[in-house]
């Protein structure tokens, strides 16, 4: 073999070796890319799984918090205690992710769908004295929000009757129904009075006509009024007159919600029954400042 042939053979071998090395390098790089892509995909899948796990855990935490809040609200209602937003945050939600709004909305859905109830925000207490009015003007421009709630039924009125929801067999022995009747009467008296307020001597005169001026069957009259104040059915304002210190009585925040204008109308109509004067609805409308439903012509309407 000539020297020239040997040089070409050697050159071809070197070129072939370089090409093979280049192919190996490319193949290794391709494999590395595929391996890297697989690792990236695995990382993405792991991150997605972690996010799903976090979301699932978060939903479980929210569901448990909602259950806790439902129990808390029902317990407060049993004791006639108001549900305060600060109490919900402190005792139930804490630092839970999701915050107040989501938990509150889901709790409302549970209460409506399962119990026929919903949380209603109480109106702020009426500012009566000059000191209270000045304090209200300084704080948030006389904000009427109270951030306190109570439970109220959302069942239609026609479903709230003894045939569907029977009372106790002997309702006269039930202190609960007696208490409801007493605060309903007093709230109606105040709401139908001028300026929706009653001086202490006026309330005393009405209670005397009902033989409730000293004892109510649930304790003394003063004890009963103190309880109604504590539970926000009534609001008492101390004033001074020529005879010294006295009081003015108004409907409290809970009283406004539980015994609203429609409830007052129905209650008065039930009392009058068939003896209701023709203009009873107009007189009630004038006292309560509400519109009359023209279709509501009978005491049972």
Automatic annotation (TrEMBL):
GO terms for cellular component: nucleus. It holds the Pfam family MAGE. Residues 35-58 have a biased composition (Acidic residues). Residues 19-29 have a biased composition (Polar residues). Gene3D superfamilies: MAGE homology domain, winged helix WH1 motif, MAGE homology domain, winged helix WH2 motif. SMART domains: MAGE. GO terms for biological process: DNA repair. InterPro entries: MAGE, MAGE_WH1, MAGE_WH2, MHD_dom. Residues 1-63 are annotated as: Disordered. Residues 62-275 form the MAGE domain. PANTHER family: MELANOMA-ASSOCIATED ANTIGEN MAGE ANTIGEN, NSE3 HOMOLOG, SMC5-SMC6 COMPLEX COMPONENT. This is Putative mage family protein. It comes from Erysiphe neolycopersici.
